[in-house]
Amino acid sequence: MKNNRLEKVLHSMKEHEVPQMIISDPAAIFYLIGKWFSTGERMIALYLNVNGNHKLVLNELFPQNEDLGVEIVWYNDIQDGVEILSNIVEKDKVMGIDKTWPSRFLIRLQELGGGSRFVNGSTIIDYVRQVKDEEEKELMRKSSKLNDMAMERIIPWVVKGLTERELDAKIREIYKELGCESISFDPILAYAKGAADPHHATDDSKGKRGDCVILDIGGFKDDYASDMTRTVFIGEVSDRAKEIYDIVVEANRRGIAMAKPGNRMCDVDHAARSYIEEKGYGKYFTHRTGHSIGLEVHEYGDVSAVNEDIIKPGQCFSVEPGIYLYEEGIGVRIEDLVLITEDGCEVLNHFTKDLIVVPEE
């Protein structure tokens, strides 16, 4: 167990008056134990108690040869794992359940009286995970550094006549060459009208002269995600597209300037969105301004108009405004990750935001 992280979670449990909790989210278990588990339909439950007596309830099909720092309670396929768990918990106390534990296990535990009351305990660990420790900060920096390199390598390929699917295959190859474990999400590599669709599904379209190209990419390195978006142009850029580009870059910078302790997540969203609205394109900025990131590319806590959570040092999230004019085939998004410091933020992406026109071959 990573005891410093465990202590933060236990402290949060006490603050929320949740004396015991079941964690099944693979990322949360890794955060606390340092090991990923993929148990399919079989139950896994990391049981935490503010008084100690932590247990990991695990099927015998997943033997462990290393010391995980927590006692393992085994069950097999002819045993009722939930019943075994119910004999560990304190049945007369409130039980927190995280967001990923299947309802078939939760209902069974309720039937067995595995707690006096059941509450959603997800935010307890989600809020702790939002604030990265020093080890995590270094891993986030390392992952984003590789993402800068991936962006530099993929941009020349937008003029080589590749389809979006072929460009997708190329970026996956690049991440493998850079030593990443995998992509951190399905990349969005889109030309023209595809770029003007914020969540465009990669297809067989090819780019042509004057097209904007959105490159929204990220990879996992040492279990931590990166995520960055740049928009480039093939051969030339129209005055209209340049105007949109300049607005989005400034909105990105204004959002970043508000990313500091004491401000709210909604303040970051407002800074970026209000500028785009001021320029007359508010209805074409159709998504939130960002999302938290770490072990998962989308973690709890978004950068949106409705999130009034106060920003704290150690948080890491994206700032990614965009403008999408579908009928004109113009889509521009610029995204950076910010790591909140004691008095501001550190931008983890260093790849240029200057407008890039890629010369045709």
If you had to describe this structure to a student in words, what would you say it looks like?
Helix 6 packs across helix 7 (164-177) and helix 8 (239-257) runs antiparallel to helix 9 (265-278). With 361 residues, this protein is α+β, with helices and mostly antiparallel strands. It is elongated, with a radius of gyration of 23 Å. The strands form 6 sheets. The protein has a 6-stranded mixed beta sheet with strand order 4-3-2-1-5-6. Strands 8-9-12-20 form a 4-stranded mixed beta sheet, with helices on one face. Strands 7-10-11 form a 3-stranded antiparallel beta sheet. The protein has 9 helices and 20 strands.
Layout: helices, strands, pairs:
Elements (H helix, E strand, L loop, with lengths): L2 H13 L4 E4 L2 H8 L11 E5 L5 E5 L11 E5 L5 H6 L7 E4 L5 H9 L5 E4 L1 H9 L3 H21 L9 H14 L4 E2 L4 E4 L20 E6 L1 E3 L2 E2 L2 E7 L4 H19 L7 H14 L11 E3 L6 E5 L12 E4 L2 E4 L4 E4 L2 E5 L4 E3 L9 E2 L3
Parallel strand pairs: 1-5, 3-4, 5-6, 12-20
Antiparallel strand pairs: 1-2, 2-3, 7-10, 8-9, 9-12, 10-11, 13-14, 15-18, 16-17, 18-19
Helix pairs in contact: 6-7, 8-9
